[in-house]
Design a protein that fits this description.
The structure holds 2 protein chains of 2 kinds. Chain A is an alpha+beta fold. Chain A is 53% helix and 15% strand. A 3-stranded antiparallel beta sheet of chain B has the order 2-5-4. A two-stranded parallel sheet of chain B has the order 1-3. The chains are: A alpha+beta, B alpha+beta. The interface between A and B is medium-sized, with 28 and 23 residues.
């Protein structure tokens, strides 16, 4: 076997020498044979001839030797490829167009598939990551998540046996002010802080690069204050100095000790676009305590590592058995209803599912879309190849007559397509790099788990793609051409018109292309409609001339009512005195930003409680925001610590709580922390969206800042920023004034965010906008491809039928007649494709809904995409395609109609 | 004698070539002459099929080739048996003999 291989390699590399040797060998043989014959008396000339006869002809012998060398197949393939390259060079326009479309579609496919692979398929970068699970307290229709309430998390920690370790943490990070050195009024840097318990890093299996994890005391309310730094922050702020461990810095004015540095590349964070940063810069002990105001609400997350030998199913079973004891321990949970009106239970999910659940549907849909575009590209190429194969009928017949086998002809025909596919893939790999970096830069979708794709992955995706493209675009038309190979194709004579089968294949390909393009167009149009509808949804506030400034009132100095109110009052006072400012107010929990969820009991004896969004406001908030008061009164300065507890509710809350037509004056039971507090409704305000425009208006309840307890401030200020809303005249530029004002109120307090309401709205729409523009670009690309395909097909038909058209014109058909004739063919084909595509599009909403159910869109938005919406999208798509088809048909038709009959009759 | 020459059964050419160069290396023409001589012109050896066979044997590694100067001073390609070739020759010769005996027996019995 090795000898064989060595021999073959020798042939490949020193072929010329071997041929020369063979020539010499045969010459030697002939010489001797001739001599022998001369010796027996035959004449010179006859002797040579005799020798040649004896050997059977040198050329034949040489050919036989060559055939036996074992590289025949290789030689033939190389020959085919060379021939294909020559052919392609000859039709440069076709080659360039095909290459361009292939490079783009393959490049996009590689980019998206690589992205989907790294985000969705790659395992989490932690040791034995398949043992990590998320433990949630959520409804049965929820996506994979690990949201927990403080009470439920503690209960699970106490009673669950299936996990070798569990950790509770808060998912997102909030802003905090970090200062090094003594002076608290200078150099405050805003950092993203995440609260995690001491089991967080050990559960994941992450050990600090330097220093250590939190100790048990540090995770207690009364314990020493410690923080962990991220590698990035260590690099940026401390220049990777190892002395930083055990040094003291000030976080929100409090002294904390840095106990360790987390290794580089730690990527466990959040992909909520509203979060301050995807991954935190600083980790603080969570210090979970039953007295936290948010303890009773789902403001936490929980992850666990399964014990050895315990499966996910077993863990879920244990959770099921813990539900009842949980409700016994915390009876208020029995009355809880989620947003979707379900009773929540304890559930376990693989952590990977939890991490990717937000982007999964989007990425999958994107992959499907890009594959559809690739398919359109392949079909396009197949159509063009069919036309080319048709033109080679004569050549194929000739080759067959000269002895080519079916296999070798097929190989020849496929060679062109293979060259295009491989070249397309190579260019595609280059393009993929660009496409991916462009995507990542401009995408508002946070993709935490991605790192740049290796060349190997790209190759692994590109090679099968090349194969698939060749099969679809090359094999199909080529095998067709082979089947129709008949001996009478050898005739150099002209066939009038093209064969029926040829045309039918071309037509079928085009119809499928059109159908696919229609589906893409309809999808794009549907996404666009939803996006436009979202954009048109009123937030519930007057967004014009509304500016927002946010600060994080964190630390000991703001953990009580008095200092917080002092700060807010000072800032508001100065702001109101600024020229151009009409109204100013403060709120904890700005629209489209995060705020506190609390549980409130439904009144009138209903034994259920729902989650309500609680917002703390100053007087004049509603006027500043432009939210009309529908009943009762606004909060005033008279509502303070000493007066009865008041609350202003939104319309949606009135409806949900069924407070009736006169809600003012009714009493509700608030519940945060452990204490129940009855509050009186003094006013009803118009609805506003809270988390996003896609969700229905939230159940909002507004309470005055002044009526909160110190404990509330300590927690709320720790979790959420305080926002100042400023309504001004249009021409005022407030940035400098606001920063000045805040600096005067507290010198060490940086402004964590300064933006306009409109910018925040646009930001919340970033994802839908991005997705719809992506869909549109795919669809446009597909339309272009189909137009090219239709154009190519019709042009080819016109050129094949030139004689026929000449005859028609000679017999009296008008030019208009011919024009219509050709265009009709194009339009009919398109209509067929439209019909199929439209039917397919009716399945679209179901497909898109799963994509929309990402955190971007919620169930509400698209289940409203009723039949009218779909029909409109499909109709729009058909309209666009029809126009494109008319345009594509016009040029060949025009050409046909201007055929000079005499010329036509003379052509071959 | 005087009948037409018999054609070689399939595959036996290889065996004959291996045998022909068993004792000493020979060039292509030499092998052809020797085969014709030994077989007393009974077997029809197509000279043309000799060379493809030689190259095939070389591929298998049973013979090796070397260029050398021949008797009359011209360069020729000499083929000689390799160690593997010797084994192959023994094997094939043995098989052939067994076949020949078996066929003879059958014919003898009928």
């Amino acid at each position: 076997m090795w000898n064989d291989l060595r021999y073959r390699l020798r042939v490949l590399f020193s072929r010329e020498r071997m041929e020369k040797e063979l020539d010499e060998e045969l010459a030697f043989h002939l010489e001797h044979e001739a001599e022998k014959l001369r010796g027996s008396g035959i004449s010179e000339g006859e002797a040579m001839r005799g020798a040649r006869l004896a050997i059977g002809g040198t050329v034949q012998v040489q050919q036989k030797v060559r055939d036996g060398r074992g590289v025949l197949l290789w030689d033939e393939c190389i020959g085919d490829l060379r021939f294909a390259l020559r052919q392609l060079k000859r039709s440069a326009v076709f080659t360039l167009t095909a290459l361009a479309t292939l490079a783009l579609s393959i490049g996009a496919t590689i980019a998206v598939v690589a992205l989907a692979n790294s985000v969705l398929l790659r395992p989490l970068p932690y040791p034995q990551q398949d043992r990590l699970v998320g433990i949630s307290f959520s409804g049965s229709s929820a996506h994979a998540n690990n949201d927990q309430a403080g009470s439920t998390a503690d209960f699970v920690k106490e009673h669950a046996r299936s996990f070798q370790s569990m950790t509770v943490y808060s998912e997102g990070s909030s802003g905090a002010n970090l200062t090094i050195g003594r002076s608290a009024s200078e150099g405050a840097v805003q950092v993203a802080v995440q609260g995690v318990d001491r089991a967080f890093f050990p559960t994941l299996g992450v050990r600090p690069l330097l220093g250590r994890n939190f100790t048990e005391e540090e995770d207690r309310r009364t314990g020493p204050k410690a923080i962990l730094l991220s590698y990035g922050l260590w690099q940026r702020m401390f220049q990777e100095s190892p002395d930083v461990v055990d040094s003291v810095v000030k976080l929100n004015g409090e002294s904390v000790t840095i106990v360790g540095i987390i290794p580089k590349g730690f990527s466990f964070g959040t992909d909520d676009p509203r979060a301050l940063a995807p991954v935190a810069d600083v980790w603080q002990p969570l210090k979970l305590d039953a007295s936290d105001p948010g303890y009773a609400g789902t403001n936490y997350n929980m992850t666990g590592r399964l014990r050895d030998g315990v499966t996910l199913v077993q863990a879920q079973q244990e959770m099921n058995s813990l539900d009842q004891p949980l409700f016994d321990r915390h009876p208020y949970l029995k009355q809880w209803l989620t947003i979707t009106n379900e009773a929540p239970k304890l559930r376990v999910w693989p952590l990977k599912d939890v991490v990717v659940s937000d982007v999964r549907a989007s990425l999958l849909t994107l992959t499907a879309a890009v594959c559809a575009v690739l398919l359109v590209g392949c079909l396009n190429l197949a159509g063009l190849m069919t036309a080319r194969a048709s033109r080679r009928k004569h050549e194929i017949a000739l080759r067959t007559a000269l002895g080519a086998t079916r296999g070798s002809i097929l190989r020849l025909l496929v060679a062109e397509c293979l060259v295009l596919a491989v070249a397309g893939c190579l260019f595609g790999m280059i393009t993929a790099g660009f496409i991916q970096s462009l995507f990542l830069k401009s995408s508002p979708i946070v993709l935490l788990r991605h790192d740049s794709t290796s060349l190997l992955t790209e190759l692994a995706i590109a090679l099968p793609l090349a194969f698939i493209v060749t099969v679809i675009s090359g094999l199909l038309p080529s095998s067709r051409a082979l089947k129709r190979n008949r001996p009478d194709n050898l005739q150099a004579g002209h066939t009038v018109g093209s064969s029926l089968a040829d045309v039918r294949l071309g037509k079928t390909l085009l119809i499928v292309q059109t159908a696919l393009t229609v589906v893409l167009l309809a999808a794009a149009s549907l996404l666009l409609t939803v996006f436009l509808r979202l954009r048109a949804t009123p937030l519930g506030v007057e967004a014009q001339h509304l500016t927002v400034a946010q600060v994080n009132l964190k630390g000991e100095s703001y953990s009580a009512l008095t200092p917080t109110m002092q700060f807010i009052d000072k800032v508001l006072d100065r702001l109101r005195r600024q020229p151009g400012v009409h109204h100013a107010a403060a709120v904890n929990g700005f629209p489209l930003d995060r705020g506190l969820n609390v549980a409130m009991n439904l009144p009138n004896g209903q034994q259920r409680s729902v989650t309500v969004e609680l917002r703390l406001v100053t007087p004049d908030y509603f006027r500043t925001m432009g939210m009309p008061l529908l009943a009762g009164r606004d909060i005033t300065d008279e509502d303070n610590e000493d007066s009865p507890q008041v609350i202003v509710v939104s319309e949606a809350l009135v409806k949900r709580f069924e407070l009736g037509p006169h809600p003012v004056g009714q009493s509700l039971n608030g519940m945060w922390g452990k204490d129940k507090r009855p509050v009186t409704v003094v006013g009803v305000v118009a609805d506003a969206h809270s988390h996003s425009l896609a969700e229905p208006p939230a159940l909002l309840a507004y309470e005055p800042f002044r009526q909160q307890s110190d404990k509330t401030f300590k927690t709320l200020n720790g979790w959420f920023p305080t926002s100042f809303a400023i309504r001004s005249a249009s021409t005022t530029d407030l940035a400098g004034a606001v920063r000045q004002t805040i600096h005067e109120a507290d010198a060490g307090m940086p402004v964590s965010r300064f933006t306009t309401m409109q910018a925040m709205i646009d930001g919340s729409l970033a994802r839908p906008r991005f997705l719809s523009s992506l869909a549109i670009s795919f669809a446009v690309f597909a339309v272009m491809l189909t137009v090219i395909g239709l154009f190519g097909l019709l042009s080819y038909q016109v050129s094949e039928r030139t004689r026929e058209i000449g005859v028609r014109i000679a017999l009296g058909a008008t030019r208009g007649h011919i024009l219509g004739f050709i265009m009709r063919r194009g339009v009919v084909l398109t209509l067929l494709g439209l019909a199929i595509g439209s039917l397919t599009s009716l399945v679209l909403p179901r497909l898109i809904r799963s994509m929309m159910n990402d955190s971007v869109y919620t169930a509400g938005a698209v289940s409203n995409a009723d039949t009218a919406g779909i029909v409109a999208s499909v109709a729009a798509a058909c309209g666009v395609m029809l126009l494109a088809a008319v345009f594509a048909s016009y040029v060949p038709a025009r050409r046909a109609s201007t055929i000079d009959p005499l010329e036509a009759l003379r052509t071959e | 004698m005087g009948d037409k020459k018999l054609e070689l059964p399939q595959g036996t050419l290889d065996l004959l070539i291996l045998k022909a160069i068993e004792l000493k290396p020979m060039h292509g023409w030499g092998i052809s002459e020797r085969l014709q001589l030994i077989s007393r012109n009974v077997i029809q050896v197509q000279q043309g099929s000799l060379y493809p066979a030689l190259h095939r044997l070389e591929r298998h590694g049973w013979i090796t080739a070397k260029w050398a100067v021949s008797e009359n001073g011209r360069r020729a390609k000499y083929y000689q048996l390799s160690a593997k070739g010797r084994k192959q020759l023994a094997q094939e010769a043995n098989d052939w003999n067994r076949l020949a005996v078996a066929v003879s027996e059958i014919l003898g019995m009928a």
